[in-house]
Amino acid sequence: MTVVLLRHGRSTSNTAHTLAGRSPGVELDDRGREQAQAIVARLADVVIEEIVHSPLLRCEQTVAPLARARGLTPVVEHRLVEVDYGEWTGRELKVLLEEPLWKIVQQHASAAVFPGGEGLAQVQARAVAAVREHDARLAELHGRDVVWVACSHGDVIKSVLADALGAHLDGFQRIVAEPASISVVRYTSTRPYVLKMNDTGADLSGVNVPPASGDGARAEVSGSVPGGEVRL
Length: 232
Known about the structure:
This protein is α/β, with parallel strands linked by helices.
């Protein structure tokens, strides 16, 4: 099973350099709407069975063009919602840089709890659980490996990728997830494989599920090959 982790397009909060969090009314700006429309072409060669997204407006707007193009009704997943930044919500990033907690967020994320909000460890737990549960549900529903889209937010996506990489949450700030970027994780019966991270390009045809083996078993990527990976 393969999930396309899509970050929402550029928002009005991104350009204002504020921490949007769950503030109401934060929507895509002009560039973000262009990015949302471009996703249709970027994923044109990918067979997508379902679209799941955070309940926030900017994610709803990001997947809308793709959903219309594919004739799919998006599924709202509240566990993919943005981090509850509590008292930090809506504040300017340059001001937050001076907060003592900022260094903890950057260097010891597993211990970071936002005042009046949630901890990043909680974010990772809920987001990973949501992704894996939808993955299992779609596997049972379709009886085969499929590709599906999960549209969420930067820190949420980075926490899911850290889990897929087998990396400690304290290192998740080393991962980048830009607006409208696509990261791809293929979950197998033994472990996840990260196929793409922070991809903002156009050719995503490689995201498609490879053919199943002759015995009908679920397709699984082989182990790493010294010198590089070659799809057989």
